[in-house]
Design brief:
This protein has helices at 45-63, 67-83, 85-96, 100-120, 158-170, 184-196, 210-219, 232-244, 267-279, 296-311, 331-346, 397-404, 420-429, 462-467; strands at 11-13, 16-18, 25-29, 36-41, 127-129, 135-143, 147-150, 174-177, 203-206, 225-229, 248-252, 257-261, 289-295, 350-353, 357-358, 364-365, 368-371, 388-394, 409-410, 412-416, 434-437, 452-453, 456-457, 470-478. The chain is an alpha/beta fold. It folds into two domains: 11-253 and 455-473, 3-Layer(aba) Sandwich (Aldehyde Dehydrogenase, Chain A, domain 1), CATH 3.40.605; 257-444, Aldehyde Dehydrogenase, Chain A, domain 2, CATH 3.40.309.10. The strands form seven sheets. Strands 14-17-18-13-12-20-21 form a seven-stranded mixed β-sheet, sandwiched between helices. A six-stranded mixed β-sheet has the order 9-8-7-10-11-23, with helices on both faces. Helix 8 links the parallel strand 10 (225-229) and strand 11. Helix 2 runs antiparallel to helix 4 and helix 4 runs parallel beside helix 5 (158-170). The longest helix has 21 residues, at 100-120. The radius of gyration is 23 Å and the shape is globular. The termini are far apart.
């Protein structure tokens, strides 16, 4: 059992760990107990200006380091993260609530992302374009410049790491604004990068007023790129700020993932995967399967089995080895779940299981299943971002696809069928940036991660993720010889 000791929270600006210049702090609570576990220093405008100057200098230093050397530093970072996985996971569970084993798995995934980025950063190739004998045409791929990176609270290790690894691997410097609600894991991740040899200025870590930070950084001519993971409304606002100042951006926004389940599958097998996917991280996952569309002939069996498995999920403190699902992040998330369930029930949905908060303290909510949910229910149109599964039935594949594509979101989608023909059709017709057939995993270090429509644009991860932090320049060389 971990020691359950939190970490010292600090800003990291221009190679120094310190507090904010005005001494302002915010409380950090453990969502399983509501106990205050730490105090987070908040950056001022003066601190932001120092970070901007630092990242501008850091970019010139970091970009000039040979890719092979950058690779070695990032590989050492990955090794340090693995060595410290238990400690980082302990911090992560304290501040975000997920089961310790799940948190530890997240930390190892973060290390994998750094490792992959380290190697791929050595392959930002240019190309030569065939031309006339007296002209040489070629392109070079270079780092775009200092990056403003905003990461969310639901994956405190993976999300900051994905942004840091991609940007640094490409040769960029980064100002990272991690979540003020779960800062500890990001602090420890940045410590690993710094101790591995990333030079002063190449990474700055700040916390504070999100609106103030985003507007100040994106108005600065120092910042050349924005990468943001979070809600659709905030993403649209930040995308507007970036566009106004001609900065490239990557937007990984919310979803409302459909799951089409055909009548030819093994129900027990699909239920096992579905329940695990839905209630992982208490449903606080942007790619979480949420709208289950089950073919009529197997829908009753699916609902019964799904409810049976979900009702037996053990909900509790993430440090209890028996816990399978931890708390929601805070009381606001509990209120949001209660409102969505109440609205759906009032409009005709059946609350098959759950729908209520649990325990005497902490932000715990029961695994919840709603069936026969009308399209007018808010939860059918708004991403619940919590432990609520919606199960409706369909008759024809056309109607299932129409419902899957109905919303303006298009992040992830899932389908289950034994038919190769159906698999090919669903893969082609479902309108999402990532489609998984007969599985619930859409995130790998070596593959692009991102959505379409209101779920954002650009990609993190994979070759595409490294390229998103680069610009391509054309060089034209002509001979002046007679």
């Amino acid at each position: 059992m971990p020691n359950q000791k939190y970490t010292d929270l600090e800003l990291f600006i221009d190679g120094k760990w310190r507090g904010g210049s005005e001494g302002k702090t915010a409380e950090i609570q453990n969502p399983a107990t509501h106990e205050v576990i730490g105090h987070l220093p908040l950056a001022t405008i003066a601190d932001l200006n120092e970070a901007l100057s630092s990242t501008e200098r850091g970019f010139e230093i970091w970009r000039s380091i040979a890719p092979a050397r950058r690779c070695a530093i990032l590989q050492k970072t990955a090794s340090l993260i693995r060595e410290r996985a238990a400690r980082i996971a302990e911090i992560l569970t304290l501040e975000q609530g997920k089961p310790f084993a799940e948190a530890k798995g997240e930390v190892f995934k973060a290390a994998e992302i750094v490792d992959w980025g380290a190697q791929e950063g050595r392959r930002t190739y240019g190309r030569t374009v065939p031309s006339e004998e007296s002209i040489r045409l070629y392109t070079i791929q270079e780092p775009v410049g200092p990056v403003a990176a905003f990461s969310p609270w639901n994956f405190p290790a993976i999300s900051p790491t994905r942004k840091l690894a991609g940007a640094l691997a490409a040769g960029c410097s980064v100002i990272l604004k991690a979540s003020e609600q779960v800062p500890g894991a990001a602090v420890e991740i940045v410590r690993a990068f710094v101790e591995a040899g990333v030079p002063d200025g190449a990474i700055n870590l700040i916390f504070g007023d999100p609106a103030q930070i985003s507007s100040h950084l994106l108005e600065s001519q120092v910042i050349r790129k924005l990468t943001f993971t979070g809600s659709v409304p905030v993403g649209k606002h930040l995308a507007g700020l970036a566009a106004r100042n001609m900065k490239t951006s990557t937007m990984e926004l919310g979803g409302h993932s459909p799951v089409i389940i055909c009548d030819d599958v093994d129900i027990d097998e699909v239920v096992t995967m579905s329940v695990k996917g839905k209630f992982r991280n208490a449903g606080q996952v942007c790619t979480a399967p949420t709208r289950f569309l089950v073919q009529e002939s197997v829908s009753d069996v699916f609902v019964a089995r799904f409810c049976e498995v979900a009702a037996n999920i053990r909900v509790g403190d993430g440090f209890d080895p028996a816990t399978e699902m931890g708390p929601l992040l805070n009381e606001r998330r509990i209120a949001a779940m209660e409102t969505l369930v109440s609205d759906a029930a009032a409009k005709g949905a059946r609350v098959a299981i759950g729908g209520k908060r649990l325990h005497n303290r902490g932000s715990f909510f029961s695994p919840t299943v709603l069936t026969d949910v009308p399209l007018s229910a808010d939860v059918m149109n708004t991403e619940p971002f919590g432990p609520i599964a919606l199960i409706n039935r369909f008759n024809t594949l056309d109607s299932a696809v129409a419902e899957a594509n109905r919303l303006p979101f298009g992040l992830a989608a899932y389908a289950f069928t034994k038919s190769i023909k159906r698999s090919a059709e669903l893969s082609r017709r479902i309108d999402a940036g990532m489609v998984a057939v007969n599985g619930m995993t859409v995130s790998f270090a070596e593959t692009p991660f991102g959505g379409i429509k209101d779920s954002g644009y650009g990609r993190e991860g994979g070759v595409e993720g490294i390229e998103s932090y680069t610009v391509k320049r054309l060089i034209v060389e002509q001979s002046l010889e007679a």
